């Protein structure tokens, strides 16, 4: 509890070489509660010199950290997961205040990140190399999975707990050092997790934090000492990060925008399906990269639309900390304006507005950035509400006659983050999972985010880079494979002849 009380929530600090310090920058941004418009803190946009100091600290710490026994690194993660669990409710309260999501969803945000920290505790088996004895006479070959050096992470506003916990625990437990740049819109809960990481025993310089915008991002992408960058956020920024960092020789994993579909077959369990669709489309006010954006109703399932709308009407819009809230505010006034503009475009382009969340009023929170559940039918693929990621509580419905039409429609969309199918037919499910060209598939699950034993495998326009966050793939991302071929002679006085061929005989 003392850890939480010691964090000055009114000012986000930098973490450089083990010390929480106040930035000397002249550029600050307010942290605003999206339900009340209350300014609850300030975040600095770090100077280039401060970013360089953080990177230098990480570079200096790498020499000793990489030599730290793997069991010692794992023990720190064991302490960290215990501290996160003990402080979850306090962190969730701050997360809700700065981000807007409900308290229950804030705890879910932390819990999903915590699962990755727990998985980091098993890095001893994840980071094992390979060994083959006797690849030639007296010759053995084996591999080492060695850390890269200084890695960086750039995280979005919508999951200020989960996404940072996707990144720095796995990078650090693999023997790297790390520089984290949280979202400037809601960094306070992230900093609470960082403070717990320091309390868990992460040494000075191994984890550093800088705040800021494009200038800070660009410095991380171009600094010579940064070896790898992990990014989660918008397609525009993710593409910029991938291209700029790639040009400067860094490894990059960039998880970006999405337009997630769910295909609904008429044989599906109607009640379970409708409940799942409503939760996935409108939970977190639609501010999830895995949110359900498009429901593709196949055949007679189109007759369920009216019931879907009625379920959505029962959702309560309110401040995230209020009891029984289903939909909290979107992150900012700018975000709300963009969502409303896209809803208006749907009306203008001829979609049928079945449920309108534009004029929702929340008593006591009249200044909040609220948008209610919104549902369109009669949507076509040339409409903005279909083509663009809305990142708000808006569901577009398209009706088709067959599964084949549904698969073709979904595969034609440029994004590939996630897709769902609702059916009671194993044969249909198997056909769908084989033919669909999307990286993550849910069968009777609308948000198919995998558990940490597996990797996050978004694809196509939703991802740049070969290796995804957490799981086995992220260990490959955060390590370099070194292959060693060795020969030891049984008799040190053995005499041989010169061999000028490439053979290992």
Characterize the structure shown.
This protein has 505 residues and is α/β, with parallel strands linked by helices. It has two domains: 277 residues, Aldehyde Dehydrogenase, Chain A, domain 1 (3-Layer(aba) Sandwich), CATH 3.40.605.10; 183 residues, 3-Layer(aba) Sandwich (Aldehyde Dehydrogenase, Chain A, domain 2). The protein is built from 17 helices and 22 strands. Strands 14-15-16-13-12-18-19 form a seven-stranded mixed beta sheet, sandwiched between helices. Strands 9-8-7-10-11-21 form a six-stranded mixed beta sheet, sandwiched between helices. Strands 5-6-22 form a three-stranded antiparallel beta sheet. Helix 3 crosses helix 8 and helix 9 packs parallel to helix 10. The protein is globular, with a radius of gyration of 25 Å. The chain starts with a helix and ends in an 18-residue tail after the last strand.
């Amino acid at each position: 509890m003392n850890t939480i009380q010691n964090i000055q929530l009114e000012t986000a600090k930098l973490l450089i070489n083990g010390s929480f310090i106040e930035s000397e920058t002249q550029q600050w941004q307010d942290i605003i509660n999206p339900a009340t418009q209350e300014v609850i803190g300030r975040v600095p946009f770090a100077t280039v010199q401060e970013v360089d100091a953080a990177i230098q600290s990480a570079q200096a710490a790498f020499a000793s950290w990489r030599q730290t026994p793997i069991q010692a690194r794992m023990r720190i993660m064991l302490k960290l997961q215990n501290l996160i669990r003990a402080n979850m409710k306090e962190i969730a309260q701050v997360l809700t205040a700065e981000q807007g999501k409900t308290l229950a969803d804030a705890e879910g945000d932390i819990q999903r990140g915590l699962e990755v920290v727990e998985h980091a505790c098993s890095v001893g088996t994840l980071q094992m190399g390979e060994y083959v004895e006797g690849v030639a006479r007296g010759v053995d070959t084996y591999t080492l999975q060695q850390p890269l050096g200084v890695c960086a992470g750039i995280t979005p506003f919508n999951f200020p707990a989960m996404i940072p916990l996707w990144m720095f625990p796995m990078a650090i437990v693999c023997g790297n050092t790390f520089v984290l740049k949280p979202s400037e819109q809601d960094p306070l809960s992230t900093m609470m997790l960082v403070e717990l990481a320091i309390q868990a025993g992460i040494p000075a310089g191994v984890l550093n934090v800088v705040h800021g915008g494009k200038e800070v991002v660009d410095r991380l992408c171009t600094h010579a000492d940064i070896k790898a960058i992990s990014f989660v956020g918008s397609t525009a920024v993710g593409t910029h990060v991938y291209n700029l960092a790639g040009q400067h020789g860094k490894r990059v994993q960039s998880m970006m925008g999405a337009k997630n579909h769910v295909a609904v077959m008429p044989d599906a369990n109607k009640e379970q399906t409708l409940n799942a669709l409503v939760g996935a489309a409108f939970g977190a006010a639609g501010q999830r990269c895995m949110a359900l954006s498009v429901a593709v109703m196949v055949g007679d399932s189109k007759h369920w639309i009216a019931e879907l709308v009625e379920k959505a009407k029962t959702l309560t819009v309110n401040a995230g900390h209020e009891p029984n809230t289903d939909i909290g505010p979107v992150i900012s006034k700018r975000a709300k304006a963009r969502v409303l503009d896209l809803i208006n475009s749907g009306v203008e382009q001829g979609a049928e507005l079945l449920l309108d969340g534009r004029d929702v009023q929340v008593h006591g929170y009249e200044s909040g950035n609220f948008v209610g559940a919104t549902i369109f039918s009669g949507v076509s693929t040339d409409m903005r509400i279909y083509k663009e990621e809305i990142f708000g509580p808006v569901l577009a419905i398209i009706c088709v006659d067959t599964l084949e039409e549904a698969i073709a429609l979904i595969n034609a969309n440029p994004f590939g983050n996630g897709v769902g199918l609702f059916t009671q037919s194993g044969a249909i499910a198997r056909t769908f999972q084989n033919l669909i060209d999307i990286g993550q598939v849910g069968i009777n699950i609308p948000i198919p985010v995998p558990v940490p034993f597996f990797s996050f495998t978004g694809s196509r326009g939703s991802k740049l880079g070969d290796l995804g966050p957490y799981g086995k793939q992220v260990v490959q991302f955060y390590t370099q494979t070194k292959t060693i071929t060795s020969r030891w002679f049984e008799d040190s006085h053995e005499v041989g002849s010169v061999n000028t061929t490439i053979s290992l005989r």
